[in-house]
Fold this sequence. Notes:
alpha/beta, Rossmann fold, six-stranded parallel sheet
Amino acid sequence: MKKLDDFNFKAKRVLIRVDFNVPLDENYKITNNSRIAASLPTLNKILDDGGSIILMSHLGRPKGGYEEKFSLKHLIDEISSLLNRKVYFAVDCIGNEAFSLASGLQEGEVLLLENLRFYKEEEKGDLSFAEKLAGLGDFYVNDAFGTAHRAHASTTIIAQFFPDAKCFGYLMIREIENIEKVLRTGKKPITAIIGGAKVSDKVLIIENLLSKVNNLIIGGGMAYTFFRAMGANTGNSLVEEDRIELAKHLISEAKNKNVELYLPFDSVIADGFSNDANTALSDNMDIQQGWMGLDIGDEAIKKFTEVILKSETILWNGPMGVFEMEKFKKGTVAIAQAVADSTSEGAYSLIGGGDSVAAVKQFGFSKKVSYISTGGGAMLEFLEGKELPGVKAILD
């Protein structure tokens, strides 16, 4: 695996694909700079070596062509402040100005290109567009794990123009190595906690993990499809009718592979999808009609916590309930606490996926787990066992 530390970047113009897809408010001010901050070790290594940097990123989902709210010019001040140096900006990502600014960069200087996705060729993985981008620098670094599952021009296609001058940045390396700790090198027992609304969203992850883990905990709305597969009365709980046979298959596969499958014994149920709804506790084998499960119950929390505390390696993807509502956050908070407690006792914990990451941060556990993935969709596809185009392009 080609890493940043394998190279010295003295006098090199380094083209770096970063993931600066940060949230902006109505005044175009950054509300969370964590994605930019995460790239700093990579950027500083190159600058400290005496190299110059050309930053490429996308922002939002422009429909094709320039849109003010998606311009990367809104990020200039923040990047400049974090790097403690001036950041030049090209109003295009290809074209005469971009080439002129890039070719004129001196050691230690930084150039930010305009949003790549203002060109439809970026997402199409257009070869000609990638070649134009490649012409801006003489070395390519991919440090955007969050887009590594897309074969876009700047994340994948461009790498072929740098056969011996390409590598992963520190963030990409950290993401890959941390996921590998769960999939290949983790100490046993390994426990995967999978939550969220739908089995269909997580089926490939579950199937891949069944050959990697010792324990599989299922929570969230997806659990009720499993209970229906077991003949339970699930009331008005979310059930994917067309996935019941799949749930039966996964239950059977877990047994065949000697994986302990843990489903929640009980749920906090409600008579409506609202924080103002009436609530009660119910055995998950018999939820009364007109009521729906919106969080795991006390017995489930107790059992899940017991399993987590006995684990050496933990993966958590997906909440245990509708944690955005006060009445239904208890289960997700309890699992976060259990993961944090197990981590403090020496276990390794990886948190990934938008909702579980949001929950860990919201409830104050972000510094009490081993690693929080920035990957989102890329991490999920990695866990599914898929080959990520952005990773393969560097390894090739």
